[in-house]
Please model this.
Amino acid sequence: MATDTTSNETVNRTARYLRKAWQGISVPLVAVLLGLIIGALLLLVSGAQPLSAYGALFEGAFGTPAAIQRTLEKATPLIFAGLAVAFAFKAGLFNIGAQGQLLIGAVVAAYVGFSIQGLPAIIHAPLALLIGGLAGALYGFIPGALKTYTGAHEVITTIMLNYVAINITDYLADGPWKDMTPGNIVARTPKIFPSAVLPSLGNIPTGFILALLAAVVAWWILYRTTLGYEIRTVGLNSSAAQYAGIRVAKIVILSMMISGFLAGMGGAVETQGINGRFQPGFNTGIGFDGITIALLGKTNPFGVIPAALLLGAMRAGSSKMQFSAGVAPEITDVITAVILFFVAADIIVKTLIRQRGTDDDKVTLSTGWSGH
Amino acid sequence: GGQKPAAEKKCGDEGVICIGLVTDVGKIDDKSFNQSSWEGTQQAAKEVGALEVKYVETTDAKDYAANIKQFTDQGYNIIVTIGFGMGEATAEAAAANPKVHFIGVDQFQGEAIPNVAGLVFHEDQAGYLAGVLAASMSQSGVVASVLGTNLVPPVVAFNEGYLNGARSVNPNIKIIDTYHPGGLDVAFTDPEWGATTAQQAIDQGADVIFGAGGNTGNGALIQAAGNEGVWCIGVDTDQWETVPEAHPCLISSAVKLIPPGIVDLVKMSKDGKFPSGNYFGAAGLAPFHDHESAIPQEVKDLLEKTKAGLLDGSISTGYNPG
Amino acid sequence: MSDRLSPIADDAPIVLEAKGITKQFPGVLANDQVDLVLHRGEILAMLGENGAGKSTLMSILSGLYTPDAGEIWIKGEHVTLHSPGDAIIRGVGMVYQHFQLVPVMTVAENVILGAEVVKAGGYIDIREANRRVRELSKQYGLEIDPTAVIEDLPVGLQQRVEIIKALYRQADILILDEPTAVLTPQESNELFQIMHQLTAQGVSIIFITHKLKEVLTVADRIVVLRGGKAVGTVYPAESTEASLAELMVGRKVILQVDKKRAQPGKTVLKIENLEVLDERKHKVVKGLSLDVREGEILAVAGVQGNGQREFVEALTGLRPVVGGHIFIEDEETTHSIPRKISELDVAHIPEDREKHGLVMPYSVADNLVLNRYFHEPFSHRAVLNRDAIAENGRNLVKEFDVRTPSIETHAGSLSGGNKQKVIVARELSRPVKLLVANQPTRGIDVGSIEFIHNQIVAQRDAGVAVLLVSAELDEVLSLADRVAVMFDGHIVKTLPIEEATRERVGLLMAGSEEE
Amino acid sequence: MELTAVPRKISTNWFIKNRWLVLIFIIIIGSIAYAYAVNGRVTTAVLASTLRQSTPLVLGALCGLICERSGVINIGIEGQMLMGAFLAFMANVYLGNLWVALAIGILAGALMGLLLAFMSVTLKMDQIIGGTVINILAIGLTGYFYISGLTTQGKFQPFALGPLAEIPLIGPVFFKNPPITYMAIVIVFVLHYVLFYTRWGLRTRAVGEHPSAADTVGINVYKMRYINVTIGGMLAGLAGAFLTLEGVGTFERGMTNGRGFLALAIMIFGKWTPLGAWGAAFLFGFTYAIQTQLQFMGVNLPPQFIGSLPYILTILVLAGFVGRSRPPAAEGKPYEKEGG
Ligand SMILES: Nc1ncnc2c1ncn2[C@@H]1O[C@H](COP(=O)(O)OP(=O)(O)OP(=O)(O)O)[C@@H](O)[C@H]1O
Ligand SMILES: Nc1ncnc2c1ncn2[C@@H]1O[C@H](COP(=O)(O)OP(=O)(O)OP(=O)(O)O)[C@@H](O)[C@H]1O
Ligand SMILES: [Mg+2]
Ligand SMILES: [Mg+2]
Model:
């Protein structure tokens, strides 16, 4: 059958690859465009100048090396949180608790950072990261174990544990781990030692590189290891997983722990790379953004990265937008919602750009709710 | 927000005054300290003839430094930063921009930095006066306070002052005080909690409610207004202006006068007399407004006496930070 | 059973007529210019391979699908059916291949759903509904408890509910899509009696099945579909199983399994006094004992619902055992987890292929390693080897003749027969000592059945111990070397195949005592 | 052949099956009676607070419940509540009539419900994403368009229901409330009745459990989902209106503060039944009220400890007593009318 010459086949394959790549990015691109257009309409309605607003937004996000750095800094925890939520989705778990796991990771990394003195940076920083991640994993273990052993639904328990995490960290920052520097009345931990700080490589935060790495590792685990095969099997059909000899309980707990680990790492990176300490109120909302990002990225670890960059850029640029164009930052939320809408409702976009697509990449989290 | 430049001059030029304001996490129109700081800043700008006056709202606490930088990059020479949370970012920005004057609202200065003035207030004193007023007005012998989170020192100061002030009038008074149990991010934006907590206190006999916690406290004030025979006391600014729904019960507010403090400091900056370290703004009670006649003269006298005592140090609020 | 050897019903008036029905699905022409006529009081059987387009045609007649072309005439009237509701008011009732019952609701609730009789404020008088269901069930001899919850009922009774549903709506054209696929012979016979009773009362029935015997006994007329086209109308009197099979598949099919005498070796599986509970904690396997030796097929025959499902699940580690012992070779596996049992070279073709057997969104290739992904060469040190998995997929697809566009195709989009082949391929392509096959050919066309049966026999001949669980008496009798009859949670009798006559096994299955 | 399945005797088995719930219920009633005997005023205050705090939660939970019963997951309750709260407030500001404002709040919720229905039924979008879109959109829109400094004429005030309000404990708690609280209680029972005793309820549950079964008996699945999800949105809008028109009287950005998500948890906790949700919301409101009361009593714990109480208690109750609950089988899955 294959009578084509080899070179012909290569061309064909390249063409097919390019077409596939275009199919992959065309919908998100058009969705972003539509998001910006609808945002512009709202801006016009409210009497603002869309072009100058977007100009400032873009400048604030990418205009200078420092701006780019801020975008990357914003994107970093979002990647971690997005990965955490996406990873759990793959196991059929809806982890609304990334926020709590992230907080715990952040405060514990701070503790490791300020309480241990004299370690070389090469050990101290990774140690704090690791322990922060593990703390998140431990916090993720709770809903996982509750689900397997008592049947308590993870959506409830993770929501509850978010509140508890806020309280725990607030208490620690205002109590036993409070910064006792004379004159300080603020609830916060002491500054971490320089050896625990994650530096920036030029304008690129180390944390961002770690986040990219985490995405690769998460993807690799999910799609290239037997563990990932088990996780996805449990997520898609837990009866078949059981039939195949997979220990569903173990996988559920482990998935929640890996998810928690990723979120905890996100918190630790925040502490060590940006804040330099834990302070209540400094890590707000990231876990919930993680849900948005996981969904924008179609629960694919690699999809999470552009999604987080998009959100990070809007967050980074919005103060410039307010400064230069007087536009309130909330408009970026509206734009985000519209983009998410069009990414998910890809029928609309595909009709717009006359693309005949397969249903393969349609986001469905059918097991994300009722679970097992 | 802000005003357009009038002339060809621009910020950073010799003799040009540009004032920037960075809010704490929250909005410029929070009916609370962000808002009154902005009002004070605008007023100060007018008085010193500033070329530009602008604000940037902080949406993420990690952006404090970046938001300040927006202004220093543009050559702004006076920057108002709001809230104790920004203290650190302000100090760092001050070190990097020694020529810029920073006014840190609510930022207690442990060590003086030459170009930073912490505009701080004796919230405990304002709270003390509110406590005296509350205890004096209470018929039931039960008063309450509905507060933002205890993580925020000024809130604690207000409350401690309030407790001791009330006890100074009636040692046996029953005081119900409650802090919002959620985290920092919701503690000041949960009026529903404020309202229901106030009602729970009222149902147990409280007849004066001190609402101190941004919108959370405002919820308590509005709730109190719906109950016959219950008074309420606002906080930070004169809430007669900001929460009209509370008029039926609002006898006063424990205020810290942020706007005049900012105006003073801006003027001093212009005159080359910018102070460093802590600059205490005035704190006390707002007018009684329509309830003037409802307050007995002896209560008014007592308040005057207490105020004097607090000023000369003969009365201590009992609040001890740290 | 049928004494109508001539097409008498052909003279009866036509109640339903389809002309040139065409239905295109993405990539498949499911129905291609199909014509169909149904007479009053007639039982019309439809035959065809898996994927021939039978269900599609019936779904069109019942208003679920809209045809791309063609006309439907019901009782002399040209109709356009926009929804099942349109068909229902014209007297067309359909019992779908996959039952359309709400599992958590009661029989009565399911029956009245969509045709509720309500009082003021939309209030449903459920007592009244129960009474009407009882009435109907008495009238047609379809005994059922209206207050039972569907998910607690055996499939045979669920099907009864479907029929009552149609009768409740006063259907006089009844379409039954593979009604006997999940029924035991006894249940099937009861169904046929009911069908005759209904046709006697003027109801017309279209009846789809893969079981050629049934067609010959109950149908008045037979229509065969192949590749979406109606390829012929024949009468039972002039047909044989072989001729029907050939018409269906387009080639000769060997219906009788051709096998040599068994050469049993040592005992592989030994079960002693096994006790297992069902979901509702009732003991449904009550002291079951049996053993299977290498090189033989032991068939467990029994009416469904006598504990077979729970028994197999316990045997394969999917369900806890509360009493007794299971030994596989010398190893006790009574409380072992599925992985351990599977690693003892026990293959398992599960009863519920959608639930246990396949991960629908996975590719065919991934499904083909579902219980071996952790082995070399499919993975090395916990890292998957995609190439090995793909190659395994290509080989098995070819070897087992799985009809799929590619190995990357989602298993969920395969037809039922091909899904089953994927499972069979997976289970038989590895070293096997014991093969546990539960209802391995349910709902599958004769061509595929032939293939799977041959595979099972080939395994036996290679020395594998085979435990076949089937409600299909024909399958049991043609495959088994020994027949163990299960009733009420235990094995009442084990017979060598020579002594296992259809009548004797049938009686034992029905619970009658011997001796 | 066995013809009769083992029937489920719901009435008699119910108490045994739910023995833990029953036990908890008895303990709670007993404790309340005892507490009332010891300190009537505090008990009344705490229970009144319980009811108040449970009202937006139960309304939100009912929103989620009616959506999910028809097969559509709604995690956009938070956003729907926020929009309801915002528009009700704006209406109150500009129109000055609480009842009109209430209607507009409900209408706002209905529109948000319609949006979710459009996304999940017509566009067949993943429902979790649809809900998330609504949440972000609501935060963005209300945040962007809120103008501060607006004031209203006030909020709904409690009124007593005649002699009922005179009953000790129960009277002041249940029969001396503002209108939306009464409405919430009525809605709980109406919804329970509708869901389990009427044609509409039967069809709704069928659509949520097995849409193709419903379709094959002529029930329009899409229409049922559209209507139910829209009604759900109205309930969320009502919950939002409660916040601005009854609970507080004013609007604040993000003032729902996660109540929509709590509502979701409460819906699951209540096992997708209105009465169950009410009980769960009540339990939740109670822990909130108790947490405040502990502070009132000057219990010397950091507020953060007391603040965690409701959540830890919920987890414990859920893990220890309530256990597994089974959601409507078809929820989350867009219904595709194959070949249609
Ligand atoms: N909803 C659908 N979407 C796409 N293709 C479909 C759909 N339903 C059926 N088909 C296609 O139409 C063909 C006919 O399917 P149909 O279900 O009518 O077969 P069948 O004769 O009932 O088979 P079986 O004996 O297995 O029940 C199949 O090969 C399938 O590819
Ligand atoms: N959503 C769908 N998209 C594409 N094809 C479909 C879809 N649903 C069903 N099909 C096709 O319809 C055909 C028949 O489906 P059905 O579920 O009736 O299986 P079946 O062949 O009848 O098997 P069984 O009777 O064992 O269930 C299959 O060939 C399948 O490929
Ligand atoms: Mg079929
Ligand atoms: Mg079939």
